[in-house]
Structure prediction request, 621 residues.
Amino acid sequence: MAPRIVRELLSFWKSLVFLLTPLFLCPLPIYFAYTEYSKMAACAYAVIIMAVYWTTEVLPLAVTALLPIVLFPMLGVQSSKDVCINYLKDNNFLFVGGLLVAVAIERWNLHKRIALRVLLTVGSEPRWLMLGMMSATAFLSMWISNTATTAMMVPIAQAILSELLKEKGMDNPEEKNILAPDEKAGKFENEEDIKLKEIKMEEGDHDFVEDDTTVPEDQVPTLGSSVDKGDKMGKGLLLCICYAANIGGTATLTGTGPNLVITQAVDTLFPDGPGIDFVTWFSFGFPAMLLALLLAWIWLQCMFLDCRCLLGCIKQRGCKGRCKRDRDNAAYKVIRRQYDELGPLSFPEKVVLLHFVLLVLLWFFRDMKFVKLENKRAAGWTYFFVKGYMTDAATGIMVAIFLFFWPSKPPNFMCCRRSRDTRPAKPAPPILDWATVHQKMPWSVVILLGGGFALADGVKVSGLSIWLSEAFTSLAGVPPAVIALVVSILVAFITEFTSNVSTASIFLPIVGKMAEGICVHPYYLMIPATIACSFAFMLPVATPPNAIVFSYGRIKVVDMARCGFMLNLGCILVLTFAINTYGIPLYGLHTFPSWATCAAGAVTQLGPANVTMLPANVTLG
Prediction:
């Protein structure tokens, strides 16, 4: 009787978590209700409730992000009017502007053309094919949805694998019926939902491609060993896509949600600081992304391919023909056929490509802080406008608006009409329309970001941020590099179980105040913590790209966990290397900024050796 009751209660575990979490935590605000810490306790109460709800997903993530609108006014932390402002901040529209351009890229298949062009360039030899897939996926993930990029790349990979294995006769006859993707394989918390059942899978994806070298009959592998090798190869080619999608999003400010969370967290916690814009983030994130991507490529080869000839392949020698880029085999023909089916570059693709390049150039040259003019203003096209008025968000929205106006066909009236064009003159539909945006835009992510911004603002207004900075003064004697490494590892492993946006929303305000508590530059801890939110390689539920790849039925959880664990650690080491080398001069991390407050009373200078200097809250020379 008792076990049955327990089982029935456990089946309602989400309802129990939803109801009991506020009840168990209510002593916190009640105990401090009439003290000077009442606001801090009330804010901490709301933060912990949201952390539990985000972690367990008892409510949809975007719905949990709306809780500050209810909890902060009820608990006396902030008025509803002040809380709601956070949901439509400048950084929200930076995200919206970038996504609108990404929707146009997806609508006209420009992203598929770019991906196939990269694969044609690298050839169809397995290790170079893997590099091509990772490069294309990472580049596209810098600008468009990680989920959409993965959903597009995986069927391409399946088709290539299928033809490779059919050509070599190493397909598994017992595995011809491939399972359809399972929509419930993972959560899609920070991108638009992808209907996985619509992603077509090619027959024979459990195949393997061998080299073209001739071997003696007594050395010909058995069917079982060939299939095992083929399965291993297929796992590697699928995992490289989801890993590259996660890594690629770290390079740009609009690439993934946590990158936008840090911009607003910095603006909220340190309003007098310079902030983080597209260029300052890209200058650090892009080189770190390249290093992490290279590491992932090498590690995946060691895990799923023969890494003994890796150096020989790089040098184009010593692998006995195994590294040939054969452009006559079936796999290359599949890529070529899919590319040819796209036809020549169409007019809409040219228009979208033009706007995309224009947007990137406008972001890069908006405010060139490294070029100072006589009036101490930075060079850039915003020089001709009021200082500080034209932000990255305004730039993105401006380019996106043009896409709703620009026609998707060349004009055919008056002098623009071609001599053989007999069609009646009429307006062409625009490159982008609202119906397409409504279908593809992940509005839930905008709300999720707003919830994170509201959380950071509440932590500051309530005074909880000051209490946190004072609480962390006990860590002042620990080397900052060790703290940064520990924070990155902690965040990377927590985000395996929670949304990366919600993880960043919870931890970044805490990490920012931790930096003030130990008197190091806030960016030194916040930037690694932000990027570490995207290093979720171990579990299918960690990110939408992981879930998409896992849903195809080839990869087991143990495969992803075994490969992802070491990759997690490796990418964190790359991140630690980056922040302690070129990150220091890039952001001026060797000095404690005047726009932050040192709570420990002594400043820790970053460099070859940690030097403690007095007084606090000064810029070190």
Notes: The radius of gyration is 26 Å. The beta strands are 368-372, 378-379, 603-605, 611-613. Residues 488 and 572 are 7 Å apart (CA to CA).
